[in-house]
């Protein structure tokens, strides 16, 4: 830690001459008592005899007094000392002073006293001595420094939707392991973290019972008692360590038995707020606050709630009153923290109504989305952070999911320190919420495959991840040269090396730490769970990313100014000047980072004498990172030549691309060999939400070995199409026209404005500008269902129907980001956005209207029975039903506007 004042005078008291230590602390102050216990453990381990007392007594032996400024305990036990504590005003701050044979540890508050005791213990561990005279003071830079645990799974539970995971021993056996919790909480307090976030869709029905809703409980009575016991244990133990337990939940999600009782869905994004749901949720929150000590709430209004207006109402009329009622029941005036997550909502609008009635509010927003990409954030997402940090409450940076870092080890102190500085200096934030570095959905385990089959604990494997973030959350301004020395000493102690070898390990972390961030920010489709970067990307995704729906704002926000692949290729062809970070620059840099990381880790290996198995795993990760960087750079080189061909029409450009694709396969084969015996999976989300590079439906395509045949097929397709081009007379391949889809009849159960033929000349909204002018062949037998555009804009689109066999409903989304058009399904903001297989574009650029944006086609699959479709506000085309069992081939139809460049990804199909 950085100290405002640091003075050591005289000699140190060694353990050979000082055998008796008395620690004076307030037995009724849990945090000071815990700090005293940890300090006593350290002293006892050195062979000293330690006694505890509630009151200072005269003694010639060493005495340590631990207390909180201003309390009766502190005034009584420090009255004989002349200690100036006028500058001890910062939250969780402390000062340590020596007078004669007494060390005084004084905290601004209870947590400060705890941290002071732990600081002295750390110094004794490091030096092996008790300082005879010490004069230091310190306080944290960030107000909240927290870590999160997902009480969730890599897959959906049977009969349940996303985020729905009741707390049960069968689903989460680790949740009931007190030793595991103690280990984790100890790790947190050792790193001076003061908040623990538990993420779950609807935790209340596992933790509280409601008199008015006895049927809402969704666990057995036996499991409920276990939940009560472990949650009470957790909150009490966390409180001793100065840690708030903050329960996260999504809105609006209700328990499954509650939903069944009222014949509603557990979550329905298009559902308005109803009195029953509001009352149930409010009373759940009240009971939770009343029942468990030292807890707060993290509220996610997005993903399962209808409109911004509903967000405002829900937060201010349901959530805050629920907390306030819990406070009244306890007779307390201290407001528990409520954190508003900005995800998929208008947080400033919500906060404007909330701050006048509740003061202990915080805001939270994702730092680089659901990845780690840069310490130079900018763009619209940065403006969101700045807007929230200017509201007057504390703004929290959420280092979220880390979808681009899974599953390899990541621990670059340099990147992390620069990132925390950016949180302060660019975003104006002053708090941290840290996700596990990997395997969030599979916590507490990592993806590592071991020889014995034993699962590694994420908190153990990724120790440097937690330590680095916490260290810089405490103080981001530490001198970089001193930090290199600090981490060298830490790594030398862990792996039993000399400082030179430790420095090489640190270099390997720092070099590899640039690879995934740089790659994703320059080439990725999204920063979210939808993409698993370290499994790679297909050429079709590199040369035609629009087909995969690039997440809006991502590239403008998650990296420095630069050019994307398509922009770069166009400028190269037009001989225009390039701006900022370029694709060729990045692939050169990531391959160099990989090379240097491997050289550094290999150089350190001969000096390793401790924890050799973990070092070997770390070394393997560095080699895997290099293989990935080499693989990806070859794919980019090929993509650039393919894009050049789209301008030049010279087959020689494709001939030049082929060796790069072939070389990429060699590097990927190496990646397969490096991971097949060392990793169980690449990504811990193993559901249909993951789409890039390929769908993760039913837990498939989660290893490099599974992906290799797909990349080999891509290469074979490219070779075939290249030969067809060469053998054609005009250098072109005739594009196969799509065959019309087979429509099916269903029984409509809701009122509509009739149907229309999907053909040229039809005015879908009855207006001249909505006349169809081009239609993909696949769509030409369909019957569209008519809706009024005003009703769609104001009320959304709702359709009820009955079908006797499985069908796909064909839906046309306008290719526009204007609010008057309904946005297509987005897994970044709607976790249920692929519940009916609707997330992917099936036909891109498939319809043109006279004066409206062109249409992309999605399909929703429904099983036989009575079904309904509820879509949000905005214009969208409902184009009819087709047989779900017929073959549907995704493609880019290519009906683009004049002056636009046609897609070239057909070369890989």
For the sheet with most strands, the description reads:
8 strands, parallel, barrel
- Structural class category: alpha/beta
Gross morphology: globular
Mean pLDDT: 94
- Give the distance, in angstroms, between the N- and C-terminal Cα atoms: 56 Å
Q: Strand fraction band? A: 15-25%
Instruction: Work out the number of β strands.
Output: 28
The share of residues in helices is: 25-40%
Task: Tell me the number of helical segments per DSSP (H or I, 4 or more residues long).
Answer: 25
Calculate Rg over CA atoms.
Answer: 30 Å
Q: Low-confidence parts lasting 5 or more residues at pLDDT below 50?
A: 1-18
How would you write the strand order of the largest sheet? 10-11-12-13-14-15-16-17
Topology:
Blueprint: E1 5-8, E2 12-13, E3 20-24, H1 30-45, E4 49-53, E5 62-68, H2 72-78, E6 94-99, E7 102-107, H3 110-127, E8 130-131, E9 134-138, E10 144-150, H4 178-190, E11 195-199, H5 204-207, H6 221-240, E12 244-251, H7 256-262, H8 275-291, E13 295-303, H9 308-330, E14 338-341, H10 347-354, E15 361-366, H11 379-389, E16 394-399, H12 413-425, E17 431-434, H13 458-461, H14 463-474, H15 480-495, H16 499-512, H17 515-523, H18 539-543, H19 554-557, H20 565-574, H21 583-604, H22 612-648, H23 651-675, H24 704-727, E18 747-748, E19 755-757, E20 772-775, E21 783-785, H25 789-795, E22 797-803, E23 807-814, E24 843-849, E25 855-862, E26 865-871, E27 877-883, E28 891-892
Q: Key terms for this structure?
A:
909 residues, alpha/beta, seven-stranded mixed β-sheet, 38% helix, 16% strand, disordered N terminus
């Amino acid at each position: 830690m950085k100290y405002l004042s640091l003075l050591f005078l005289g000699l140190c008291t060694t353990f050979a001459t000082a055998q008796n230590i008395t620690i004076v602390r307030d037995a009724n102050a849990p945090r000071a008592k815990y700090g005293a216990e940890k300090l006593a453990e350290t002293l006892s381990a050195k062979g000293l005899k330690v006694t505890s007392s509630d009151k200072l007594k005269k003694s010639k032996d060493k005495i340590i007094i631990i207390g909180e400024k201003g309390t009766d305990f502190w005034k009584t036990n420090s009255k004989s000392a002349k200690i100036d504590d006028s500058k001890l005003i910062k939250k969780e701050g402390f000062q340590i002073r020596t007078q004669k044979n007494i060390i005084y540890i004084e905290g601004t508050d209870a947590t400060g006293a705890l941290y002071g005791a732990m600081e002295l213990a750390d110094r004794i561990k490091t030096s092996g001595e008790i300082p005879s005279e010490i004069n230091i003071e310190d306080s944290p830079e960030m107000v909240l420094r927290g870590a999160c645990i997902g009480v969730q799974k890599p897959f959906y539970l049977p009969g349940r939707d996303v985020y729905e995971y009741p707390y049960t021993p069968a689903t989460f056996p680790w949740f009931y392991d007190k030793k595991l919790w103690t280990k984790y909480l100890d790790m947190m307090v050792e790193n001076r973290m003061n908040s623990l976030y538990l993420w779950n869709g609807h935790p209340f029905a596992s933790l509280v019972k409601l008199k008015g809703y006895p049927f809402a409980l969704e666990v057995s009575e036996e499991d409920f008692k276990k939940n009560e016991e472990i949650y009470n244990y957790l909150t009490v133990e966390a409180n001793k360590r100065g840690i708030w337990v903050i329960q996260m939940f999504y809105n609006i999600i209700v328990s499954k038995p509650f939903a069944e009782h009222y014949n509603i869905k557990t979550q329905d994004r298009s559902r308005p707020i109803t009195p029953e749901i509001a009352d149930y949720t409010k009373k759940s929150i009240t009971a939770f606050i009343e029942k468990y000590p030292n807890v707060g709430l993290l509220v996610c209004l997005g993903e399962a709630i209808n409109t911004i207006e509903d967000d405002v109402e829900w937060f201010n009329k349901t959530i805050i009153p629920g907390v306030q009622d819990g406070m009244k029941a306890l007779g307390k005036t201290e407001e528990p923290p409520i954190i508003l997550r900005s995800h998929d909502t208008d947080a400033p609008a919500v906060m404007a109504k909330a701050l006048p009635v509740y003061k202990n509010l915080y805001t939270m927003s994702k730092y680089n989305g659901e990845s780690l990409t840069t310490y130079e954030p900018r763009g619209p997402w940065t403006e969101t952070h700045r807007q929230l940090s200017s509201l007057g409450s504390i703004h929290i940076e959420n280092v979220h999911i880390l979808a681009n870092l899974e599953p390899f080890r990541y621990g670059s102190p340099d990147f992390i320190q620069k990132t925390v500085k950016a949180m302060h200096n660019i975003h104006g934030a002053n708090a941290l919420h840290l996700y596990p570095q990997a395997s969030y959905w599979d916590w507490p385990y990592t993806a590592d495959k071991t020889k014995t089959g034993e699962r590694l604990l994420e908190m153990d494997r990724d120790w440097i991840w937690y330590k680095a973030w916490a260290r810089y959350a405490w103080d981001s301004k530490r001198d970089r040269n001193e930090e290199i020395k600090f981490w060298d000493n830490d790594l030398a102690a862990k792996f039993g090396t000399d400082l030179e070898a430790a420095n090489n390990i640190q270099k390997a972390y720092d070099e590899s730490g640039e690879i995934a961030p740089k790659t994703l920010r320059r080439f990725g489709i999204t920063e979210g769970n939808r993409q698993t970067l370290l499994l790679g990307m297909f050429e079709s995704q590199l040369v035609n990313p629009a087909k995969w729906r690039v997440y809006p704002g991502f590239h403008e926000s998650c990296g420095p100014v630069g050019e994307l692949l398509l922009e770069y290729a166009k400028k190269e062809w037009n001989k225009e000047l390039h701006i900022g970070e370029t694709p060729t620059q990045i692939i050169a840099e990531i391959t160099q980072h990989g090379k240097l990381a491997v050289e550094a880790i290999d150089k350190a290996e001969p000096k390793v004498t401790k924890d050799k198995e973990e070092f070997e795993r770390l070394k393997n990760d560095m080699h895997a990172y290099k293989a990935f960087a080499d693989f990806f750079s070859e794919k980019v080189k090929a993509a650039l030549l393919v894009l050049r061909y789209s301008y030049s029409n010279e087959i020689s450009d494709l001939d030049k691309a082929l060796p790069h694709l072939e070389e990429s396969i060699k590097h990927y084969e190496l990646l397969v060999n490096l991971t097949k015996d060392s990793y169980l999976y690449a990504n811990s989300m193993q559901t249909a939400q993951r789409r890039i590079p390929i769908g993760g439906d039913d837990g498939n395509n989660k290893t490099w070995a599974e992906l290799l045949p797909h990349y080999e097929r891509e290469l074979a397709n490219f070779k075939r199409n290249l030969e067809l081009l060469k053998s054609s007379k005009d250098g072109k391949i005739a594009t196969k026209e799509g065959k019309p889809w087979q429509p099916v009849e269903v029984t409509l159960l809701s009122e509509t404005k009739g149907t229309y033929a999907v053909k040229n000349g039809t005015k879908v909204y009855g207006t001249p500008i909505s006349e169809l002018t081009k239609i993909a062949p696949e769509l030409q037998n369909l019957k569209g269902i008519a809706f009024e555009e005003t009703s769609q804009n104001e009320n959304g689109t709702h359709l009820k129907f009955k079908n006797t066999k499985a069908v796909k409903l064909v839906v046309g989304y306008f290719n526009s980001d204007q609010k008057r058009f309904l946005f297509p399904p987005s897994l970044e903001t709607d976790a249920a956005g692929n519940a009916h297989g609707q997330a992917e574009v099936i036909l891109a650029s498939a319809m043109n209207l006279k004066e409206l944006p062109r249409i992309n086609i999605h399909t929703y699959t429904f099983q036989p029975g009575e079904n309904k479709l509820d879509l949000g506000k905005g214009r969208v085309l409902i184009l009819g039903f087709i047989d779900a069992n017929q073959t549907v081939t995704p493609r880019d139809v290519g009906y683009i506007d004049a002056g636009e460049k046609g897609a070239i990804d057909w070369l890989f199909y």
